[in-house]
């Protein structure tokens, strides 16, 4: 499929250091920290055209474009960002940031704890979505951005956009909440726990301090990713892509890789374990589990969202069973109950939860149409 508009081209990451301590929801305090981020487009004189892109569980700051020394390394949302694309860099200044606890340059478990001179490991405090939003607000301050034209994200990124409207209602004018949910179901928490157990029980985990042992819980992280990846895809997509195809045309009557879908999952697991940090995976899944802004409204989501001043676009995908459209409609219903401005779309896209990452023309047209109306 030919992409509309152009790629952003060569980009480079930047680093912001913060000496002001950050008190986390857990009560722990980070005395100082770094955030790695990238920007695309130009900030206008009024600094009113900035959009924050929040990443999902396995995402990072490299949202669009490619690096000069690695042309094949495209940003994870490159298909939607660039000149003439739905997130149009001729109009908007786009910011992507690697969240606290990440493993792509921002302060996290694999970075050095200044107190010990060793990697933080399991000593890195658990973070919540609200902690990420507060850290992002300080990054906005450092860039001179008083108010985001929009905050956008899919999955866990959509939850951050939702959190922004509650924690800093005066600093966000539009929220694009895509393939997200107001909180995890028991089933989703269960999936996350099984994934974590795969890592925690890996003999090479060493209580989270595997860095000091010169090893990595690769098997556990590989299994965690394989499990997660199954939930990101739709049943129809997996059937169309793999069916019951055998790699070698006949049963081998052993426990090796026989079906094409097995080969695919193992490849995805191995690839992920090659670049992602296991402690970060644990942190990110816990942040997902803890997210539930309705707790601040005595269990009433509408009450929690009543402070929001932003206009909303909520998008769900019919084949997404991990965060089903019914969960997005809960957000829409809460906003409508308050009389708040919300638009809802449910594009037909066959890629399950991963649909928010895809170059789907209907989905992209919805985002484009909404952002075209955003005044800067």
Automatic annotation (TrEMBL):
Signal peptide: none
Record carries keyword Transferase: yes
Domain AB hydrolase-1: 50-343
EC code: 2.3.1.46
Major place of residence: cytoplasm
Annotated active site: 155 (nucleophile), 320, 353
GO terms (BP aspect): homoserine metabolic process; methionine biosynthetic process
Uppermost EC category: transferase
Catalytic activity, as annotated: L-homoserine + succinyl-CoA = O-succinyl-L-homoserine + CoA
Compartment(s): Cytoplasm
Site, as annotated: Important for acyl-CoA specificity: 322
Binding of substrate, residues: 225, 354
GO MF annotation, one: homoserine O-acetyltransferase activity
GO cellular component terms, semicolon-separated: cytoplasm
InterPro entries on file: AB_hydrolase_1, AB_hydrolase_fold, HAT_MetX-like
Keywords: Acyltransferase, Amino-acid biosynthesis, Cytoplasm, Methionine biosynthesis, Transferase
Annotated metabolic or biological route of this protein: Amino-acid biosynthesis; L-methionine biosynthesis via de novo pathway; O-succinyl-L-homoserine from L-homoserine: step 1/1
Domain of life, per lineage: Bacteria
HAMAP family: MetX_acyltransf
Quaternary structure and interacting proteins, as annotated: Homodimer.
Known role: Transfers a succinyl group from succinyl-CoA to L-homoserine, forming succinyl-L-homoserine.
Family: Belongs to the AB hydrolase superfamily. MetX family.
Protein name: Homoserine O-succinyltransferase
